[in-house]
Amino acid sequence: MPGGRTTGRGARVTGERYGPPPRPATAVAAAVLALAQAAVLLLLVLVVVVDVAGLGRSADVGLPALLAIGACTLAGLDLLGGLSLLRGAGRTLLLVTAAVEAGVSGLASVVALAGLVRAGASSSGDALVLLAAVALLALPVVRLVLVSRAEVRAWSRTGRDPVRTGTVAALLGPVAALAATATVVLAITGTDAVFTDDVGGTYSGSGEPVAPPAPGGQDFDGHFADAAGDCYGGEMAACDDLYAQTPVGDPYETYGSTCGGRLDDETYGGCVRVFGPTD
């Protein structure tokens, strides 16, 4: 019969196969890369949270908190996009997240490279950041290439098995919980304590000492190094003596007045009143 053949039940069968086309290997590879990227981002969030929390109270947690929220958001979209592509429900999420991640990683690579050039070979921190950024840049770039292929585009339009609401909740719930936990932990870590002296004055700060100028450093002064070391170790009288004995405006004067960096505010010789004889 022209245009096809007839089955035993009289139904005409054309040359097309029943059901959707087979899932292309490139779509599977793109989805796997998206899942790998999500895992890397979530691991980075955990590392940042543990690292910042281990530093004790600090006011400089705004950027880590922003990065944690952004990384969790991208990781969640990567997971959802990878699942959507595997089910033939669309590739838009993977295209968007891959482009954003490539841009962010590329910018981080440029910044790290600039810092490495300025600091020279001595900056191991910038070198590690550069290597990490380049590694993270490779995943979304390869994913962009794979998702842009014609067979993946055709597969993504089949809509064979749309992602259900329950699946989305199960997939993104843990990521949202991690984002919320990271935000709370970093917020608590970044909250300065309030200290009160014996006459009612209040001072803010982390309460944690900051190391004094190191030998060989620009601000190091051997005349005040011993007193600064005692102040760092918790001898509040040494902090007050350091403030009284140093010239006005000297870094050691500020170090003593802030009780070894424990406070953001200067006490002007009142560390014993705030912390007692020892911290």
**N- to C-terminal separation?**
97 Å
- Specify the number of helices: 10
Number of DSSP E strands: 4
Helix/strand-derived class?
A: mainly alpha
* Count of the domains: 2
Quaternary status: single chain
Mean pLDDT: 79
Please summarize the sheet with the most strands.
Answer: 2 strands, antiparallel
Radius of gyration: 29 Å
Strand order of the largest sheet: 1-2
Q: SSE string, helix = H, strand = E?
A: EEHHHHHHEEHHHH
Instruction: Please report which band the strand proportion falls in: under 5%, 5-15%, 15-25%, 25-35%, 35-45% or over 45%.
Output: under 5%
Model regions low in confidence, pLDDT < 50 over at least 5 residues: 1-16
Any idea what the shape is? Answer: elongated
Helical residues, percent: 55-70%
Polypeptide structure, described:
This protein has 279 residues and is mainly alpha-helical. The chain is 62% helix and 4% strand. Strand 1 and strand 2 form a beta hairpin. Helix 2 runs antiparallel to helix 6. It folds into two domains: 169 residues, no CATH class; 83 residues, no CATH class.
Quick take:
The chain crosses the membrane at residues 27-50, 62-86, 93-115, 127-146, 167-188. The chain has 279 residues and is mainly alpha-helical.
Itemize the secondary structure elements and their pairings.
Layout: E1 5-6, E2 12-13, H1 25-54, H2 62-86, H3 92-119, H4 124-147, H5 150-156, H6 165-189, E3 193-196, E4 202-205, H7 222-232, H8 236-245, H9 251-257, H10 271-275
Antiparallel strand pairs: 1-2, 3-4
